[in-house]
């Protein structure tokens, strides 16, 4: 008895089920990309006034990343200033016109302030403080916010320190 003889032979019905599953997965992936592109278009239009400040909107599968340079969301160490919280809320308010969104807050720190414990701690604190501002000042429910900090030798797009909001339509995240 050879190994080939011991393996069950796939029937045509099994192959058809496999093709149907692959087709379903591909259509879900395409739907996610389409949602991401549509959300990107909506948000890019809503946030056009911030483009002078180098804010950028990038599509990612079924989500969108909004890169906010530190000069827009001003930080004092790990804390957002009042002006930074107001700017963040203005951005979130414009974004929320696209519909209910979920937010993943990422703070990228290229180098820490001299007063900070270290870049990793500062990045985590910045992300936490930005998430707290989203909840308390911008009235985003805490169930729709995740936060994380990252240390990079230069942030995404080479912009230095940056706050990134990955956003997705609420219905896409369920």
User: How much of the residues is beta strand, in percent?
Assistant: 15-25%
Structural class comes to alpha+beta
Overall shape: elongated
The strand line-up of the biggest sheet is: 1-2-7-5-6
Q: How far apart lie the N and C ends?
A: 49 Å
Classify the helix fraction into a percent range: 40-55%
Poorly predicted runs? none
Residue-averaged pLDDT = 76
- What radius of gyration results from the CA coordinates? 21 Å
What composes the largest sheet? 5 strands, mixed
**How many strands?**
7
Determine the number of helices (DSSP H or I, runs of at least 4 residues). Answer: 4
Element order: H for helix, E for strand: HHEEEEHEHEE
Question: What would you note in describing this structure?
Answer:
It is a single chain. The mean pLDDT is 76. 41% of the residues lie in helices and 23% in strands. The protein has a 5-stranded mixed sheet, with helices on one face. Strands 3-4 form a two-stranded antiparallel sheet. The longest helix has 35 residues. With 174 residues, it is α+β, with helices and mostly antiparallel strands.
What's the arrangement of secondary structure elements?
Elements: H1 3-6, H2 12-46, E1 56-60, E2 63-69, E3 75-76, E4 79-80, H3 82-96, E5 101-109, H4 119-136, E6 145-151, E7 162-169
Summarize this structure as a short list of keywords or feature phrases:
174 residues; alpha+beta; two-stranded antiparallel sheet; 4 helices
Quick structural overview:
With 174 residues, the chain is of the alpha+beta class.
């Amino acid at each position: 008895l050879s190994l080939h003889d011991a393996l069950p032979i796939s029937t045509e019905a099994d192959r058809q089920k496999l093709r149907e599953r692959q087709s379903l997965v591909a259509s879900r992936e395409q739907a996610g990309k389409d949602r991401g592109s549509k959300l990107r278009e909506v948000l890019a239009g809503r946030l056009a006034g911030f483009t002078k400040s180098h804010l950028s909107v990038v599509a990612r599968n079924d989500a969108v990343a909004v890169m906010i340079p530190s000069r827009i969301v001003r930080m004092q160490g790990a804390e957002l200033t009042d002006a930074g919280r107001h700017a963040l809320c203005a951005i979130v308010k414009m974004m929320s016109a696209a519909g209910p969104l979920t937010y993943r807050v990422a703070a990228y720190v290229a180098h820490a302030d001299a007063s900070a414990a270290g870049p990793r701690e500062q990045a985590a604190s910045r992300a936490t403080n930005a998430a707290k501002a989203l909840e308390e000042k911008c009235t985003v429910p805490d169930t729709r916010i995740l936060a994380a900090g990252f240390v990079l030798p230069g942030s995404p797009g080479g912009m230095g320190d940056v706050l990134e909001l990955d956003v997705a339509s609420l219905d896409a995240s369920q």
